[in-house]
């Protein structure tokens, strides 16, 4: 049995990846800053609570791992400032120094990057061949970590794979309010509170939305094809390009179905002055290279994903009220 370690197992994506891996006959190590409940499944699961910015704690958490999924996210999430560099990139450098250069096949490291690393998208769709010009501190940090992982792979220390992730949405089992669950969940919470859903601009900006369970499936697919993917970065996307105005209206209508109230209003507003240029540009993803190697493709449609997101949110809120 191989040992697979998930770093950041309590997060939005991390909890989904951990659940997916728990279904496999492996030794699974779920590592998070806080204590979590291990998911059910075939895997022999161990939960480790650790502050991974502590190098000794990191070394203990990953000891004996055949593969590591790196899903750590610095404070502030995707809008992180410079202070998040330690988590977004620094811990990865420590990780490679700890596990690299041992005996046997180099361990696999699957890193969670972002499609936004490219900066202002030069065309649609993105396919991963574009030059990178990151426009935010978060994207600068993610790109630096990815480049470090690629060099470590070229040097034979690890077999590194970077999955550049799109806009992720969906339900979650984690109760940690600090985790960013994405724009769809944020709008669903507003709709549940009876608040209007506000869009910057005219609502025609498109995002490539992929359900969190499909993203988790991309990580398991990457673990199944390490030698074909190692050393590269791979874009993950549905290839649809959903207009945010239509997505928000779908959320409002779905919430109306669950609550029996009229759909909340979807309104367009002027964006704040601090909003980055990339917030107003459409992004669609061509993930053909990754699909050709792994056979992965997203299975959950946007309407089904929104339905599940809204249902999980209303069920969670009603459950808290009853208790």
TrEMBL record:
<dbReference type="InterPro" id="IPR001509">
    <property type="entry name" value="Epimerase_deHydtase"/>
</dbReference>
<dbReference type="InterPro" id="IPR051783">
    <property type="entry name" value="NAD(P)-dependent_oxidoreduct"/>
</dbReference>
<dbReference type="Pfam" id="PF01370">
    <property type="entry name" value="Epimerase"/>
</dbReference>
<protein>
    <submittedName>
        <fullName>UDP-glucose 4-epimerase</fullName>
    </submittedName>
</protein>
<dbReference type="InterPro" id="IPR036291">
    <property type="entry name" value="NAD(P)-bd_dom_sf"/>
</dbReference>
<feature type="domain" description="NAD-dependent epimerase/dehydratase">
    <location>
        <begin position="4"/>
        <end position="237"/>
    </location>
</feature>
